Each structure stands twice: as structure tokens, then as C-alpha cells.
């Protein structure tokens, strides 16, 4: 699974990297985060029609992490939908429609996973790892997004519409499976345009998800990341593994 990640690059750097035409106003209010958690606001890259011209443009927008299906009665449903398994993405009702027409990229500098202690280890705590591109570049997490209308709000309330997103996951690669059996699905730059294109259907999108992921490095980090309230560059600093914790 992917339940925590880091996204701390400046908005302009992301705009340049993803060839973004429009940066939404609320994006600038987010700020960098080294500990993005479910239900947080996250930055996502989408291709949508411009409100004024109607032209399809690439935009950097904010979404709530945890997809809330359009038919949900309560926003809390999204708390259980932070991830979408690639094996069932085209069939599960909550994800099938977004997969066909509302795909996104969630820019990240890396993500976290927790490795269970080895059998017989003295310590019983899980060891967190920061998994990030070997070349230090940004990583694009494949995601979906959805619009949900809050039934408790009036039609003229600008907050009545909630935009939410989920991260697609896949079985972990052989190199990373010793840490966790799942990993987020990451797309290389050559797949970005087709993934974001609303004209590319589910079949075409599925083919994109079969491409190899970027090379990922696993760095052991402090358990400080376990606490959502902790945030800052030190969370991604490497720490020494305990003697009885295999590398």
C-alpha cells in the first residue's frame, strides 16, 4: 500500500517538470510536506477544460487524499480509499469510471513503507523506509480523482464540491518486496501525456500501467515519521539500522 509520502518541491518546479499551464490558487496554500497523510490536501496534475476558454489544459490542482465516490453518502468513505489496487481498478465501482476518464498524477519526492521486524529480532517495532528515485528526480504516482457533492451544503455554497484522489498500487518489485508486498504505481515521463489524456480509454490506460517503474532506492529513516504531526526535512534523513535488522 501507499499510506504516507513526501511532496516538498516548489510549485514552480513541478509546473516546469510537468509542463503545467495553470496552477490553481489553493495549491499555493499547501506548502511543502515531508509527511503527507490520508485526508490531507495533495497536489495533483490533471488535464481539464479551462473554465474560461473551454480548452483542455494541464493543471496543478488540490485534492483530498482518499477518493470519495460520487454516489457516497458521507465523505468518510474516502478514508478507506486512499489506494486503488491495479488488479481490480477497472472493475471496482468506485474506481472504474474515474479510471476511464479522470486520471491524475500525484507528484512526490518519495514514499514511506514500514518493514516488519525479522523473525527472532530483539526489537518488535517496524522500521520505516523512505523509498525514492535513485536519480533524485520527482516521481509521478499514478492516481485517479473524483468529484463529490456534499449533500449537507447548499447548492450555492462554493465548498459543496469536494475533489478527492487515490493512489494506484501494484505488487512490489523483487527489489522492494522485502520491505512491503505492495508499492505505488509510478509512471515514467514518456507515459504522462497519454495517462492524463481524457480521450485515452481504460484499455489504453491499462497498457500504460504495465511499463517498468523508475529505479527506487530504499533509505531507512527515523520512526518520527510514524507520527503524522511530525513534518520536516529530517524525516527523510538516513538512520543506522539496528544490529538485528537486516539491510
Describe the structure.
The chain has helices at residues 11-17, 93-101, 189-196, 202-208, and strands at 5-7, 22-23, 33-36, 41-49, 56-65, 83-85, 103-108, 110-115, 127-133, 139-149, 161-171, 182-184, 186-187, 216-220. It has 247 residues and is mainly β. A hairpin with a 6-residue loop joins strand 4 (41-49) and strand 5 (56-65). The protein is globular.
Tally the helices: what do you get? Answer: 4
Low-confidence stretches: none
Work out the number of β strands.
14
Head-to-tail CA distance between termini: 21 Å
**String of helices and strands:** EHEEEEEHEEEEEEEHHE
- Radius of gyration of CA atoms, rounded to a whole number: 18 Å
Which bin fits the share of residues in helices?
10-25%
Question: Sheet with the most strands?
Answer: 9 strands, mixed
**What is the strand content?**
25-35%
Find the structural class using helix and strand composition: mainly beta
Shape: globular
Question: Mean pLDDT across all residues, rounded?
Answer: 92
Amino acid at each position: 500500500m501507499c499510506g504516507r509520502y513526501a511532496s516538498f518541491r516548489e510549485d514552480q518546479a513541478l509546473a516546469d517538470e510537468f509542463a503545467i499551464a495553470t496552477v490553481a490558487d489553493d495549491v499555493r496554500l499547501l506548502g511543502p510536506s515531508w509527511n503527507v497523510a490520508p485526508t490531507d490536501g495533495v497536489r495533483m496534475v490533471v488535464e481539464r477544460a479551462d473554465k474560461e476558454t473551454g480548452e483542455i489544459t494541464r493543471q496543478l490542482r488540490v485534492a483530498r487524499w482518499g477518493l470519495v465516490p460520487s454516489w457516497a453518502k458521507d465523505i468518510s468513505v474516502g478514508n478507506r480509499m486512499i489506494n486503488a489496487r491495479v488488479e481490480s481498478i477497472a472493475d471496482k465501482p468506485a474506481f472504474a469510471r474515474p479510471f476511464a476518464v479522470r486520471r491524475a498524477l500525484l507528484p512526490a519526492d518519495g514514499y514511506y513503507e514500514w518493514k516488519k521486524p525479522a523473525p527472532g529480532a530483539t526489537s518488535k517495532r517496524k522500521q520505516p523506509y523512505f523509498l525514492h528515485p535513485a536519480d533524485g528526480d520527482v516521481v509521478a504516482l499514478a492516481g485517479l480523482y473524483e468529484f463529490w457533492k456534499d449533500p449537507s451544503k447548499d447548492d450555492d455554497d462554493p465548498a459543496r464540491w469536494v475533489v478527492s484522489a487515490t493512489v494506484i498500487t501494484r505488487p512490489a518489485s523483487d527489489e522492494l518486496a522485502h520491505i512491503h508486498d505492495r508499492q505505488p504505481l509510478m509512471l515514467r515521463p514518456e507515459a504522462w501525456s497519454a495517462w492524463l489524456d481524457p480521450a485515452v480509454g481504460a484499455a489504453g490506460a491499462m497498457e500504460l500501467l504495465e511499463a517498468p517503474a523508475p529505479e527506487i532506492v530504499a533509505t531507512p529513516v527515523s520512526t518520527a515519521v510514524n507520527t503524522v504531526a511530525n513534518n520536516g526535512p529530517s524525516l527523510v534523513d538516513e538512520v543506522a539500522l539496528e544490529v538485528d535488522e537486516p539491510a
